[in-house]
Amino acid sequence: xxxxxxxxxxxxxxxxxxxxxxxxxxxxxxxxxxxxxxxxxxxxxxxxxxxxxxxxxxxxxxxxxxxxxxxxxxxxxxxxxxxxxxxxxxxxxxxxxxxxxxxxxxxxxxxxxxxxxxxxxxxxxxxxxxxxxxxxxxxxxxxxxxxxxxxxxxxxxxxxxxxxxxxxxxxxxxxxxxxxxxxxxxxxxxxxxxxxxxxxxxxxxxxxxxxxxxxxxxxxxxxxxxxxxxxxxxxxxxxxxxxxxxxxxxxxxxxxxxxxxxxxxxxxxxxxxxxxxxxxxxxxxxxxxxxxxxxxxxxxxxxxxxxxxx
Length: 310
Description:
Elements: H1 6-16, E1 24-26, E2 30-34, E3 38-41, E4 43-48, E5 54-59, E6 64-69, E7 75-79, E8 87-91, E9 97-103, E10 107-114, E11 124-129, E12 143-145, E13 151-154, E14 158-161, E15 166-168, E16 177-178, E17 184-188, E18 191-195, E19 201-205, E20 218-219, E21 222-233, E22 236-247, E23 252-255, E24 260-263, E25 266-273, E26 275-280, E27 286-291, E28 294-304
Antiparallel strand pairs: 1-2, 2-28, 3-28, 4-5, 5-6, 6-7, 8-9, 9-10, 10-11, 12-13, 13-14, 14-15, 16-17, 17-18, 18-19, 20-21, 21-22, 22-25, 23-24, 26-27, 27-28
């Protein structure tokens, strides 16, 4: 492939009318800038430790679950013989263990295994019976973590904690929600029920004012948003997704070129095909985007604005 010199590349872009993407958000006293990403090919990240240092996911090359280092992608542990149905959901508080969940139609189980890997059958740590209102007749239940990955909530009313314990909400109806404290809420037969971070269960209460379905795409005033489209050419199709970082407290800036006030509220994070899911990595200034080809890790930095920038 022919390589263009940097200057020549800019000239070519100018002739083509090309523009660079907006990757900066302007705040009153700082900028948030999205930086170039690192791509972990063939590794589909699923969950992260609470400190954002480790991740667990599926290695397509090895056809097994693995634990890897978030920054380097280096292998920490492998789980080649996990029984079908087990799923990595959380890390233990000391990051020494991976917490697995396996949920059927009537029973949900958990297991605690070392992050360094195991080639033996997981030993069931906890088991609960499911008493939920489930419209889907299949045996599949899906889960999502709260904002700091300290608990994992399933659509069948079961909540998994970092010590491997399970709490089942009787009469839960489908999708879990989260409040600002990271507690889980389910609509149930008796009203709304919640499961706190301390495993306490509250039943038959009113819906709180703040609830979100997926807390991993929100971080304070920042939010991850998407635009998705299907591109077609001849008989081929591409399912393309743009992931954006949006900030509620962005401010207007004067644009010298247009002599207008511009609101730099949103920055482009990633554009690619076949995006599965995307999250803020807990306690790290990193956005992770899991795709059919692997996982992209996109850092962002916060830089102070000086007086000369006002």
